[in-house]
């Protein structure tokens, strides 16, 4: 009888421990979102100051490394990412990941008051759609099966399905970095953020492996002797460097209130996809969960499209280099072949018109 009572008390104790762990995870995730949201603002301020005195990050400059504000933002982001990393140890991803949307709210509010970046009504709608769609995907995502060693994660990582995803992710990222970024990175927000999100999904998989290795090592099962641990560490460091580089380019080129929600939506979606492929969590899902995830994907795509459409309302990044030609100047350039008829207008000489034509149209 005492054995039965003890056995019956174990689930209660177990549930209590789980609730305590979940509470720790929620608190850490909220703190993480606050720090990450604020880091966008500090880094953007630093990038702006660097751009006013040197080459902008959006065109390949690195003068922002000399700006204290950028480093404050960098340190703030690191603190947020560390808190987020620890939150995943205590709580499941379906509880931690949706709270990342709080960073969007934090950055949007701070950008409104500090950076004077106004988010239009359609941008607000797109932001809401991205958050709702990503939340639906996360809430209906498959339950994680946590491996008990780094070797188990390595076995999952070298399975054909995830190897195919990894090769595809690297190939797409290389095309975006080598071909698309130099040509349309300054005008298409999806180029930089796609690189960050695709590489970010690989970062999370590596970070999970490192987290499990650290947790097991602290429990007395040393994982430092496995070469897989160091491979995951090198992959994580490489991916983080690439992410930060292109995130800086995106922040320097586009409106922060638009960068944050698009990056969150794409990063969350691809991370869930990579995790589902690697850990084979899609098997055994109900039809309702699959339908909900599809609806979430459609909602995210819709929100991203709406947010992307508001990009045209922002001032072009190179607007300070040239001013638009007036209709009279345009009429003169078109009629430049008949200069004799326009000498009396006393607007522009033929030589000046030729300079304008060459500067703007050649």
Automatic annotation (TrEMBL):
- Annotated TM spans: 25-42, 62-79, 85-115, 122-141, 153-177, 189-214, 226-246, 258-279
Highest taxon, organism lineage? Eukaryota
Coarse class of the protein's main subcellular location? membrane
Q: Which range is the signal sequence, renumbered to this chain?
A: none
- Cellular compartment(s): Cell membrane; Early endosome; Membrane
- A single Pfam family it belongs to is Mg_trans_NIPA
* Keywords in alphabetical order: Cell membrane, Endosome, Ion transport, Magnesium, Membrane, Transmembrane, Transmembrane helix, Transport
Keyword Oxidoreductase tagged? no
GO CC annotation terms, alphabetical:
early endosome; plasma membrane
Q: Which family does it belong to?
A: Belongs to the NIPA (TC 2.A.7) family.
- What name does UniProt use for this protein? Probable magnesium transporter
Q: Which organism is it from?
A: Dioscorea cayennensis subsp. rotundata (White Guinea yam)
């Amino acid at each position: 009888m005492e054995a039965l009572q003890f056995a019956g008390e174990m689930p209660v104790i177990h549930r209590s421990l789980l609730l305590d762990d979940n509470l720790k995870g929620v608190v850490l995730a909220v703190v993480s979102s606050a720090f990450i949201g604020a880091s966008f603002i500090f880094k953007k301020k630093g990038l702006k100051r660097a751009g006013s005195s040197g080459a902008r990050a959006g065109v390949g400059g690195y003068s922002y490394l000399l700006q204290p504000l950028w480093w404050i933002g960098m340190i703030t982001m690191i603190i947020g990412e560390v808190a987020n990393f620890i939150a995943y140890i205590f709580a499941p991803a379906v509880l931690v990941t949706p709270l990342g949307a709080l960073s969007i709210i934090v950055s949007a509010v701070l950008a409104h008051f500090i950076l004077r970046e106004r988010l239009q009504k359609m941008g607000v709608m797109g932001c809401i759609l991205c958050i709702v769609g990503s939340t639906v995907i996360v809430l209906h995502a498959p339950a994680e099966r946590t491996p008990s060693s780094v070797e188990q994660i390595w076995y999952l990582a070298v399975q054909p399905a995830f190897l195919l995803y990894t090769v595809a992710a690297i190939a797409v990222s290389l095309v975006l970095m080598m071909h698309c970024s130099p040509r349309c990175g300054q005008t298409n927000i999806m180029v930089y953020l796609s690189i960050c999100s695709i590489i970010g999904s690989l970062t999370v998989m590596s970070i999970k492996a490192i987290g499990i290795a650290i947790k097991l090592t602290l429990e007395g099962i040393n994982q430092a002797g496995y070469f897989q641990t160091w491979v995951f560490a090198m992959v994580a460091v490489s991916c983080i460097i690439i992410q930060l580089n292109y995130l800086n380019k995106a922040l320097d080129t586009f409106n922060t209130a638009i960068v944050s929600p698009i990056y969150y939506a794409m990063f969350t979606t691809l991370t869930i996809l990579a995790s589902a492929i690697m850990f084979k969590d899609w098997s055994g899902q109900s039809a309702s969960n699959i339908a909900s995830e599809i609806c979430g994907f459609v909602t995210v795509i819709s929100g991203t499209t709406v947010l992307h459409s508001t990009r045209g309302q922002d001032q072009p990044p190179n607007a300070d280099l040239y001013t638009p030609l007036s209709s009279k100047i345009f009429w003169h350039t078109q009629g430049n072949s008949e200069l004799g008829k326009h000498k009396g207008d006393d607007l522009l000489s033929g030589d000046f018109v030729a300079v304008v034509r060459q500067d703007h149209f050649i």
